[in-house]
């Protein structure tokens, strides 16, 4: 497939990149790893007048710990996120989730900012942002603004980014000590986008009741879904398979997934119910 003609720009600063976006007045696209953008451009599903390549913009790449958060430059490659010692130490669930993103060749080019800006509802990273209190920094003609994950993801492939804004960094909260985690997804083949996926964090009190629980699902709606009601219901409970099954059944009823060529809504709801009970059991099994 051949793309429609487009101009290519490789700005060397953030302000230059933003000025280019302004100049094209919504007709240009930011190019990060190109793993989602180039297929749609090559298939002429998108016909941007220009691509603004962020590769030459300094300070958009890197990972650092800042207090109780890990901060990622938007251009940090998936593979760097997956392998970073900061991630393996403080956010092991993120390292695990990254291993499900496409294949190594895709993870070697794709970026954390690109995945989050693309906002595919079946993608792992938006759900991890929901689970780990993701905070987004956006830069545009009027300066910088910060958004929490629930304000950033608006709908299918739609975020709060304005046409001349660039996502520059994302931070995830480091879970408190004693937090246990589990991540699972069901896909047709390894490397495919998930039909349904889930991440969960739990923390047990000294008396082995649940002090805290967080659950985020993907593939079950237009944006990642946090199960706040289930999380509240879990607090104070003893980890117990029957209790988890009850909470999973109730949570499943609250979901409203879509049917598509890959799976029916009913199938997705059934998978979600099963995964909720399974990951909760996995996070707490040492106490069972
Ligand atoms: C075969 C295949 C399988 C895949 N499987 C998975 C999978 O299982 N899970 C998954 O999550 N992903 C999957 N992907 C997608 C992959 O993770 C992409 O890397 C990711 O979706 C987009 O990141 P990118 O850096 O390539 O962004 P690009 O493709 O360059 O950009 C994607 C979109 O985000 C915008 N954008 C990018 N960066 C910024 C920024 N900093 N600020 C503002 N806008 C920005 C672009 O303008 C574009 O609209 C797959 C891709 C392929 C080709």
Describe the 3D structure.
Strand 6 (135-140) and strand 7 form a beta hairpin. Strands 4-5-10-6-7 form a 5-stranded antiparallel beta sheet. By secondary structure, it is an alpha+beta fold. Helix 11 (241-254) packs antiparallel against helix 12. Helix content is 35%, strand content 25%. Bound molecules: flavin-adenine dinucleotide. Flavin-adenine dinucleotide binds at residues 29-37, 39, 54, 74, 101-102, 106, 110-111, 113-115, 117-118, 123-125, 161, 166-167, 192-193. The site of flavin-adenine dinucleotide (FAD) has 30 residues, from strand 2, helix 2, helix 7, helix 8 and strand 10.
* SS content category: alpha+beta
In order across it, which strands form the biggest sheet? 4-5-10-6-7
What is the arithmetic mean of pLDDT?
A: 96
How many domains make up the coordinates?
3
Radius of gyration: 20 Å
The poorly predicted ranges are none
Number of helices: 12
Instruction: Calculate the terminal CA-CA distance, rounded to whole Å.
Output: 55 Å
Q: The biggest beta sheet, please?
A: 5 strands, antiparallel
Assigned CATH architecture of the largest domain:
2-Layer Sandwich
CATH topology of the largest domain: Uridine Diphospho-n-acetylenolpyruvylglucosamine Reductase, domain 3
Shape: globular
Strand content: 25-35%
Helical fraction: 25-40%
- Ligands bound to this protein structure: flavin-adenine dinucleotide
């Amino acid at each position: 497939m051949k793309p429609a003609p487009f101009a290519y720009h490789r700005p060397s600063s953030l302000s230059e990149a933003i000025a280019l976006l302004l100049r094209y007045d919504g007709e240009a696209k930011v190019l990060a790893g190109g793993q989602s953008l180039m297929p749609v451009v090559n298939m002429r599903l998108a016909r941007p007048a220009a691509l603004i390549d962020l590769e030459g913009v300094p300070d958009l790449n890197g990972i650092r710990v800042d207090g109780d958060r890990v901060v990622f430059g938007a251009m940090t490659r998936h593979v760097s996120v997956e392998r970073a010692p900061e991630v393996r130490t403080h956010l092991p669930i993120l390292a695990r989730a990254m291993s499900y993103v496409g294949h190594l060749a895709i993870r070697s080019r794709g970026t954390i900012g690109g995945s989050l800006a693309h906002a595919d509802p079946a993608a792992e990273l938006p759900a991890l942002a929901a689970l780990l209190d993701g905070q987004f920094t956006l830069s545009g003609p009027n300066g910088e603004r910060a958004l929490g994950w629930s304000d950033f993801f608006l709908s299918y492939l739609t975020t709060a980014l304005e046409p001349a804004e660039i996502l520059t960094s994302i931070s995830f909260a480091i879970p408190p000590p004693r937090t246990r985690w589990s991540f699972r997804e069901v896909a047709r083949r390894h490397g495919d986008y998930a039909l349904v996926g889930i991440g969960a964090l739990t923390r047990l009190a000294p008396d082995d009741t649940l002090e805290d629980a967080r659950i985020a699902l993907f593939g079950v709606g237009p944006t990642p879904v946090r199960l706040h009601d289930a999380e509240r219901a879990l607090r104070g409970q003893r980890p117990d398979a029957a209790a988890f099954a009850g909470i999973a059944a109730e949570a499943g009823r609250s979901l409203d997934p879509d049917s598509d060529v890959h799976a029916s809504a009913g199938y997705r709801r059934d998978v979600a119910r099963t995964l909720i009970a399974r990951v909760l059991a996995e996070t707490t099994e040492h106490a069972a």
